[in-house]
Amino acid sequence: MSEEIRRKAVKVCKILISKYGKEVSERKLPPIDELVMTILSQHTNDINMFRAFESLKGAYSSWEEVLAAPQDELAVTIRSSGMYNLKAKRIQATLREIQERVGKLDISHLETMEIAEAKEWLTSLHGVGPKTAAIVLLFSFGLPVLPVDTHVWRVTKRLGIIDMKVSREKAHNLLEQIMPIDCIPSLNKNLVQHGREICRAQNPKCADCILNHFCDYYSSHS
Ligand code: SF4
Questions:
Q1: Pocket of ligand 1 (CB under 6 A)
Q2: pTM of structure
Q3: Which atom of ligand 1 lies at the shortest distance from residue 215's CA?
Q4: How far is ligand 1, taken at its centre, from the CA of residue 10, in Å?
Q5: Together in a domain, 105 and 193
Q6: Which residue, 163, 158, 173, is CA-closest to 119?
Q7: Which of 14, 69, 130, 191 could cross-link 152 (Cys pair, CB 3.0–4.6 Å)?
Q8: How is residue 212 annotated by DSSP?
Q9: 105 lies in which domain range?
Q10: d(CA 186, ligand 1 centre) in Å
């Protein structure tokens, strides 16, 4: 990676922190809660996801109970998240795999692993991709990893920090290598906010953007 990209990454990080802050996130859930919440978040919005998660936590007092529940009962409990039959099946399959591999419904051992090893362990679970793994490691354990959602992917590509052709999956490790480590914990939150408010998918507000001096998209469209 070129020195120019690295310098740009440092500047972008500083500016984002000065505008949006250095906090990681307001939520810190136990790792299995975070994993299940991520399954519930697929193809729905935050409101429906939280509603389904609260309903699930209200109906069952432990993950062991969720695993033992009839699948159709679990599906009804989480119906506000949409695609509830599929999600109920997925949640139980993930819990079952953890139970079989660890001997209990607990993945707190990941905190003591190297980040790469913990990512590998999580993504070896059926249906767990790099974004879900990064969400668990960042939000539950506070490790310096970057979940790459659609906002993070779009903004970093437009800025020219990663190439336009880089896949979202590959962007995870690439961005973690490029961005300064002290900036990574707050980077997801900051880029999501910037992507929602300024660097929108359609009609980005480039004239109002604090990053426009460093942006490839802006320099080629202005
Ligand atoms: S200048 Fe435009 S394209 Fe570049 S980051 Fe800002 S809003 Fe996005």
A1: 155, 158-159, 198-199, 204-206, 209, 211-212, 215, 217-218
A2: 0.91
A3: 4
A4: 17
A5: no
A6: 173
A7: 191
A8: G
A9: 31-140
A10: 19
